[in-house]
Target: Histidyl-tRNA synthetase
Amino acid sequence: MKYSRLTKEQFEELHQEFINFLASQSITAKEWEEIKRDKPKLAEDEMDVFSDLIWEGVLDKVTYLEHFSTQQMFLFEITQVEINLIGIKIENEAIDITRREGYQWLQKNLMDDAVNLYTSSKVLSEDRNKDIFALIQQGAVITKGDLFQYFDKVVNSR
Model:
């Protein structure tokens, strides 16, 4: 398995797609019930293959990720060849940007001495999706990139 198995909730959400996946392998509903009952390892293998297919489809489309912690924000833009990072670090432990008040403070005090903005770029490995998945495993979430684009303008206007 290249990524991770989908959760029970994700499988339920993708129920029809999973049925289609099994059908593409000529596995009927009755046969699937027998496989689950008599060959649980094979059933798990099928679920893992399906999970990887879903992850590949999702990861192929990822362009932006965000990861927040109490005093840091990491905004990622992923191209076909590199990951661009905009990092924001708050040098004031009283500010928690994961809370509404802290985030509002950041919006109003972007040029405060306690706010450090930095950028970085890194060339992706040969397996772009695996690099993206590693960031997701560390807590990053897929976004449309609004924050990255906003801070990109801020950083490039300095």
Observations:
- The radius of gyration is 21 Å.
- The beta strands are 64-68, 72-78, 82-90, 115-123, 141-143.
- The helical segments are 8-13, 15-24, 29-38, 40-60, 100-108, 128-137, 146-156.
